Structure formats: structure tokens, C-alpha cells
Amino acid sequence: MKLDLSLKCAVENAADLSQKDFNEKYLKPQKPVLLKGLANLQPAGEKWTIDWFKETMGDLKIAVFDNNEKRHVYSTTVDPDFKMPFGEFLDIITKDEPSSVRMFRYNLYKQNPELKKDFSCPKFIDYAPMNSFGFMFLGGKGTDVRLHYDVDNSNVLLTQIHGYKRVILYPPSESKFLYKVPYNTHSLADLKNPDFEKFPGLQYAKGYEIIQEPGDGLFMPSGHWHYNTYLEGGISVAFRRLAHTPSGLMKGISFVAGTMPYDKVMNKILGAKWFEKKQAKCIELVAQEIKKYKAA
User: Fold this and answer.
1) How far, in Å, CA of 44 to CA of 247, rounded?
2) pLDDT at position 132
3) How confident is the model at residue 6 (pLDDT cuts 50, 70, 90)?
4) What is the spatial distance between Cα 5 and Cα 9, in angstroms, rounded to a whole number?
5) What are the pLDDT digits (tens) for 248-269?
6) What DSSP line would sit under 86-106, residue for residue?
7) Are 173 and 258 contacting, i.e. CB atoms less than 8 angstroms apart?
8) pLDDT confidence of 130, banded at 50, 70, 90?
9) CA dihedral 163, 168, 171, 175 (to 10 degrees)
């Protein structure tokens, strides 16, 4: 049994796509699109090599996550696991062997503001106030990012600068089958090794499979679930644009301001028991949705 990844993602040449066409074809209808060559429209497309980063920023201390740390499964956001020199991190992720370390939603622009001259917010989602925040994501071969949607419910434009990445994308309509952990925005299911007996809802969810090549930008509309795997050591940059509907904005605000803090408090009070309760509820809700689907 395999995941149903039969949905087809639109593909556009970034240099040929106008702002008007992007808005009408993708932003307003909230449809994903792969924008070929997006990074190459700015200096970073050629300038940002691994060697360049090591030479110019190799001594910077950066915060790193380790996927082998089991505590990450319990919460939407957690603190980094350790710090290390950026150059050493780049040496790890560029080895042709599996790695478990990654930089997640890292504001390297804050440590080196000159980076904004090389890659600023792409025109397609260039809209204040989010256009000034560029977050970088780096990981080694085989490193994955669990299935989730973003906590603020924003539109995201993820641009691949270096390396190849596989992205599995699900529209919000498929949430009912994706084992969303209550009070969180990530899934209980592991898509690296999907267990269809434990999580049978996965076989009913329809999604996209996208391979991002160096230079490609991927527009992920508000609320879209994504599971990313680094096929080799990679570097990408994400810029965001707030949800453009009142309901989408309120969903992001309420989660960040209310739901997420509540979940953190309950984690501290109940610990593992709180997660076990959420896990059971999650599985129960998807089972109900499967029954509805079969009865329809």
C-alpha cells in the first residue's frame, strides 16, 4: 500500500509569470505552484554556494535541531538541541551519507543582514509586514521534516538554493485523514515509514509529490500540509505572506495567541499523559471520518 500522491502541481517559469497571473491563478484560489528558476532571478541563485557560506560565515554559532531527539514529537515548537559553528554544520550536511541534523526556521538574515541584498522576498508574495522575514532551512541527506502546516496559517514560498528536496503536499481538505495532533499543527503519522494499519486514514488522503531542484520556488498556500525530505544536503529560504481571508487570519492568530500557549502549559502540567490523551483523540477523530467516507 502506498500514499496517494496523484494530485498534479502546476509548474511555471518564474521569469515569465506576471504578478497578476500569479494572483489570479494561484494566490486567490489557493493552489500550489512550482516556480522554476525563482532563485536565479536574484544574486543568491549563483552566489550562495556551500563554499561561499563557509568562507563568509563559517565561524558563526548557529542553533541546530537533531531529528533523533524524541522530544520533538510532543510539541509544535521546541528549542534547538545544541549550537555549533556554521562551517562545521555545513561539513556534516554535505557528506554523501544520511544525517539527522538540520537548521529549522533559522533567521540567518538577522546574523548577516547583507544576505537580504542577495535574496529578498520574491515579488509574488512581497507584502508587508512579512516580507522582511526570511527564514532559512538546511539539512543533510535523508533528513526529513515531519508532516505539518504552519502555525500562523500563512502562505509560504519556499525557494531551494542548493540541493534537491522532495515535498509531499496536502491541501487543507485532506486534514481529516492526516492525524492532526489536537492543539498542534503536526501529524501523528510518520510519512517516512507510513503505518497503514495504525493510521489507515493515510490511504484516503490525496496529495502532491514535488521534487524541488536548485533554483525552484514552491508556493504552498495557507493551511497546506507539507512533509519535506532532503534528497541531499540542501539550503532553502522561506518567505511568508499572511492569509488573505479574515477566517484564515483569525485561525493563525488564535492558534499562536491561544492554542499554542495552552498546549505548552498542559505539557508542563501533565507531561506524557497529555500527549497520550491527544494521541487517542486524534486516532478516534480520523476513525470517525473514515466511517463517514465509507458511508457516503
Assistant:
1) 35
2) 86
3) very high
4) 10
5) 999 999 999 999 999 999 989 9
6) HHHHHHHHTSSS---EEEEEE
7) no
8) confident
9) -130
Q: Does a cis peptide bond (omega within 30 degrees of 0) precede residue 129?
A: yes
Query: Counting beta carbons within 10 angstroms of the beta carbon of residue 75, is it exposed (0 to 12), middle (13 to 18) or buried (19 or more)?
Result: middle
Q: Which three cell numbers stand for residue 252?
A: 493563525
Task: Compute CA distances 20 → 26, 48, 104, 124, 221, whole Å.
Answer: 10, 29, 32, 9, 17
Exposed, middle or buried by CB within 10 Å (0-12, 13-18, 19+), for 129? exposed
Nearest alpha carbon to residue 172 among 189, 185, 160, 157: 185
> What pairs with residue 172 in β-bridges?
none
State the residue for C-alpha cell 484560489. Answer: 29
Q: Which residues partner with 103 through β-bridges? A: 138
Share of the chain above pLDDT 90, in %: 79
Which has the closest alpha carbon to 177: 192, 168, 191, 187?
187
Residue 287 has pLDDT above 90, yes or no: yes
Q: Where are the alpha helices (DSSP H) in the chain?
A: 19-22, 44-47, 50-57, 86-93, 108-111, 115-118, 246-254, 260-270, 272-295
168, β-bridge pairs: 209, 227
Residue type, 55: E
Contact 236, 137 (CB under 8 A): yes
Q: Binning pLDDT at 50, 70 and 90, where does residue 73 land?
A: low
